[in-house]
Write a structure and sequence with these properties.
18 strands, alpha+beta, Ubiquitin-like (UB roll), four-stranded mixed sheet, 433 residues, 12 helices, rod-shaped
């Protein structure tokens, strides 16, 4: 029997006395006593009443109706036999759906009915109470975690989640994906998730990387009076050193985000390069008529310098200093031409010059062949600035102790000056070397 009907017999007895006095007969009482089903918040009981309206019956059973309560049929409806009167009182509910909290009112009688009444889809959801649990007038707390479809991306793969999960941690747990010590999700583990959300697992690695790097060699400069100003010579070839640098490198999903230097160790020391710079002042070349006339004669002999001694004599006569040279052999013709001193370049035959240079296996032989074709009076016709067997510049020739023009000197003198230049500055003075 429902609570509000506990004193039903007493109430009916009192009503019967009043009605009997008014009507005055047993037959009239039976006629006005109607059977009615009264259902309050889902609890029903058969009663007999003399009330005329639904409101009369509610009043007689001390049921106070609030404006939020639901009464069917309405309180002004006349009572008929076998009528069912339904009363669902208003209940206050503290509702939490996926962490969002609200206060609601409902006329439902169970948790499941309340969720349906409040428009909450509880299919597949997790509830803090059974759906059949009855509601009280007050103090109803309902927590709902709805079912969601999410995606967890980890290690290049998509892991689908279709479950009632409320937080990112719960979603990750559903996939079975594990996080290592430094790994993290794209949202906090405690963050609430929503339907359709994508969560990303970020894999973090902290590695120690060793890198070998070059240590650049320094260049040291020395001054020397053995070389002229503007001339340089490498005394010691330098060599780069090597060091090993240790870094701590942090990557997220394979991408480097931080690189921190932790240690540096020298594997091999660099060796400095030493360069000698000349400081010797250069002297202006002497301007003599003999060298001029010799240069003039050279221009005519340049074409025949590669021939034998006979050719050389022919070439010398072409330079036409005196004509007396024609009467001698090729060698004597060379020595008498050029308009210079008796040490002019024609005191040796081509064969003798080749022998002097050491023959075909000698580097000097190769240089003279390439530079002048063994012609001690050769002149570079492209620039008129290089002379003799070894194509000296006048300035270089004079810096080696020569005077005038190389073509006016004997092949032996030219060879001696060339060897002196090679000793001071190396074979790099000749491209042919």
């Amino acid at each position: 029997m429902i609570d509000f009907l506990k004193n039903r017999k007493v109430q009916i007895a009192a009503q019967a006395v009043v009605i009997t006095g008014l009507v005055g007969g047993t037959g009239a009482v039976v006629t006005m006593n109607k059977p009615v089903t009264l259902e309050v918040n889902g609890q029903a009981e058969e009663i007999r009443t003399f009330g005329g309206t639904v409101g009369d019956i509610l009043d007689s059973h001390e049921i106070d109706v609030d404006k939020r309560d639901q009464v069917k049929p309405g309180v002004g409806t006349k009572v008929d036999r076998d009528m069912t009167i339904t009363v669902n009182t208003a209940k206050k509910v503290a509702l939490s759906v996926d962490g969002k909290e609200t206060n609601e009112w409902t006329n439902a009688n169970t948790v499941g009915q309340a969720l349906a009444d409040l428009g909450v889809d509880a299919k597949g959801a997790d509830l803090n109470a059974k759906a059949s649990q009855r509601l009280k007038d007050k103090g109803n707390d309902i927590e709902v975690t709805t079912s969601k479809d999410l995606t967890v991306v980890a290690d290049g793969k998509d892991h689908k989640v279709s479950a009632a999960v409320g937080t990112a941690k719960e979603a990750l747990k559903d996939t079975g994906v594990k996080l290592d010590k430094d790994d993290f999700l794209s949202v906090p583990m405690s963050a609430e998730v929503s339907d359709g959300q994508v969560l990303t697992v970020n894999r973090v690695k902290n590695d120690t990387v060793k890198d070998k790097q070059a240590i650049k060699a320094k260049v040291e400069t020395k001054k020397s009076g053995s070389l002229y100003e503007g001339e340089t010579k490498v005394e010691t070839e330098g060599k780069d050193g090597e060091k090993q640098v240790t870094y701590k490198v942090k990557t997220i999903n394979g991408e480097e985000v931080k690189k921190e230097k932790k240690d540096e160790k020298v594997v091999s020391e660099p060796k400095a390069k030493v360069v000698i710079q000349g400081t010797k002042k250069k002297e202006a070349p002497a301007d003599t008529g003999g060298s001029d006339s010799g240069a003039s004669g050279d221009s005519g002999s340049g074409d025949s310098g590669s021939g034998d001694s006979g050719d050389s004599g022919s070439g010398d006569s072409g330079s036409g200093d005196s004509g007396s040279g024609d009467s001698g052999s090729g060698d004597s013709g060379d020595s008498s031409t050029g308009g210079g001193s008796g040490s002019g370049g024609g005191d040796m035959s081509t064969a003798e010059i080749k022998a002097m240079l050491g023959g075909p296996g000698s580097k000097w032989y190769q240089v003279a062949k390439c530079e002048s074709e063994f012609n001690p009076r050769a002149v570079n016709k492209s620039n008129n600035a290089h002379f003799g067997l070894f194509q000296f510049k006048l300035q270089t020739w004079q810096s080696m102790g020569g005077s005038g023009n190389p073509v006016d000197a004997s092949p032996r003198e030219q060879f001696e000056r060339a060897k002196k230049l090679q000793a001071a500055a190396g074979w790099g003075q000749w491209a042919c070397a």
